[in-house]
Structure formats: C-alpha cells, structure tokens
Amino acid sequence: MPTMADVARSAGVSVATVSHVLNDTRPVLPHTRQAVLDAIDRLGYTPNTLARSLVTARTRSIGLAVSAISNPYFTEILQGVEAAALEQGYSLLIADPHDDPEHERKVVQLLHERRVDGMIVAPSADPRDLLAYLRRHQVPTVFLDRLVDEAAPHFDQVCAESAAPTARLVTHLADLGHRRIALVAGRPGLSTTGERITGYRHGLAHAGLPYDERLVVHGDSESAGAERATAALLSLAAPPTALVTANNAMTIGALRALRDRGLSVPDDIALCCFDDFAWADLFSPRLTAVAQPSKEIGAQAVRVLLDRLATPDRPSRTVRLDCAFVHRTSCGCPEQHPKSERGTAS
C-alpha cells in the first residue's frame, strides 16, 4: 500500500507539502498541488483519515439531522447537502430525529460523539434541549429550513422565504374571485408554520378580505393530519371555495379528503400548495405551487457551516433564499405552458 512518502517521492516534493495539499493547512502553488494530486492518482494512494484527524483535530465529516424518512421534502435538501459536502471533501453522517424533541437531542448527541466537525439540523417545534446541548458543547451548527429565534447570535441559519410566497398564493386566488380562502397550516411551533400563516393573513389583507380563524386549520405538517383538517373545513356551514396547503405532504392529505367528498379540483374547489414536488406536474389538474430551492438550501447550509469552521468567531448570519411561483391549473386558470416566476414570490 503506497504511503505519503511514496507520493512525495513520485511528485518530487516533501512529505510536508503532500500533507499541506491533503489537509489544506497551507497554500501550495497550483503546479505543485497538481503534481501531488497526479501522484496520488498514479499510485492509488488513500489517505489515512483516522491518522489525519488525530493531527488536525478534524474528521472532515458533517452531521446532518433532518426528518428525511418521515418528511419527503427533506429528501432534495439532503441531496444538496451531500453534493456540496462531497465537493469539499467532507463525508456525511445522517440521522433522522422524526420531528421529536427528545429523539432529536439523542441523535444530535450521537452525531457529536462521532466527532463530526459540525452539524446541520432541521430543528423540531420544541428545540430547547437541542439548543442547550449544542451551546454547552459549542458545536458549530447551522439550522436548516426552520429558524430558531433564540438561536442568534450563537448559530447560523439557512431557509427559504415563507411569508411572501404564501401571500402570493392567496392574492392569486383572490384575483380569481375567491372570497373564502382556507389554509391548511403545518405543525404549531415551527417557524415555517408561523411565517406561512403570517403570509396568508398578509395576502388576505392585500386583497381586502377579512381574516376568519375558522378557515385556518393545522394539518401538523403530514398527510393524515391534513386529511382530517381538510375534512373539517369542508364540514363548515360556509366551506371555502379555495384552499392553500402549506407543504407537499399536506397537499396529498388534502387531495384525499377532497376525493372522499367527491369534489373536483378546480371545478368545485381551487387548490394551491406550498412546495412543488416531482409529480405535481402529473396530477390532473396540474398543481399551482410555490417551489422552494431545496437542493440549493442544502448546499448553502454546507457553505455556511464551512465558513463557520474556517472563521469560528465571525458574527452569525441567517440566509434566506427566494422561492418561485409555478403557475399551473389547479388554481382554476386555463391550461398554459408551465412556468416559474423566480423571486416574484418574495
């Protein structure tokens, strides 16, 4: 098995130079770096990650705690995190907190004990134990998708805009003549839930429509909850004529409830959803939606975390990314070529 010394001899450099190339511990001239990389490829050299971590106190690994199994929205975010981490030479350790505060705390501790250099976490609705652990152990962490107000100034955060895109859906439905527009909101306590309710209310106000608390129900960010919540809306004495669902899982639940009532979209009730997803264009009618830049959210979280590792004392920051309004036909508009309006929702 080739050693670092073999690489150094083949490249005509010192062992220290090979180490600097592998660990990014000191600038190396481009042609010298390339010579080392060519020697590594030629010899088939594999760095000893464990030995390197003992020297650098870094494992070049990132812990990712997101509910990707129970929430399909996080799948694309995971892909963005993985691609960006791999590009920077970092491995990924993944754990699913299942949106449960107690389990969340346990999996984050498990990742920390695996000596990850930093973490990316989509926090639950009650992250108090999580925050206490991360602060106590001074773990470099980026919160993903869901903001934690009390996190600042200790942690960085990356998310998409939520309020303005939701308002865009509501005003679009109002422009089509709807006056009773309902919202199937997510799990109480999540920042995304609060922001989308705020956006819903702003959209109503912009359209000159009154706010009716009976038209806001919580689907708890999952399909079954949204199915029950939508059924409750349809049972009102004056049910809504249009519906906004606040994530992709809840869109599925709402559609099930509408189907069970024998209602057709958009003939009987218009529907717009927050979160575009792979098969939204295959539904009949095709779903009008807000599309989040999921992969870019994941990639941006990695970049922010690596910035934090490089400069531990810099001020924390919150990065918000624009969404796109994807205009299809479930809102009641006639068929047209699907298009997205990036930035118009924010």
Give me the side-by-side strand order of the main sheet. Answer: 7-6-8-9-10-12-13
In total, the number of strands is 13
Please bin the fraction of helical residues: 40-55%
Distance between the termini: 55 Å
Beta-strand content bin: 15-25%
Overall mean pLDDT: 89
Succession of helices and strands: HHHHEHEHEHEEHEHEHEHEEHEEE
Helix and strand content put the structural class at alpha/beta
- The value of Rg in angstroms is 24 Å
Number of helices: 12
Tertiary shape: elongated
Largest sheet: 7 strands, mixed
Low-confidence stretches: none
Describe the secondary-structure layout.
Elements: H1 4-11, H2 15-23, H3 30-43, H4 49-56, E1 61-65, H5 73-87, E2 91-95, H6 101-113, E3 118-121, H7 128-137, E4 141-144, E5 156-160, H8 163-175, E6 181-185, H9 191-206, E7 216-218, H10 223-234, E8 242-245, H11 248-260, E9 270-274, E10 288-291, H12 294-310, E11 318-321, E12 324-327, E13 339-342
Parallel strand pairs: 1-2, 1-3, 3-4, 4-5, 5-11, 6-7, 6-8, 8-9, 9-10
Antiparallel strand pairs: 10-12, 12-13
Helix pairs in contact: 1-2, 1-3, 5-12, 6-7, 8-9, 10-11
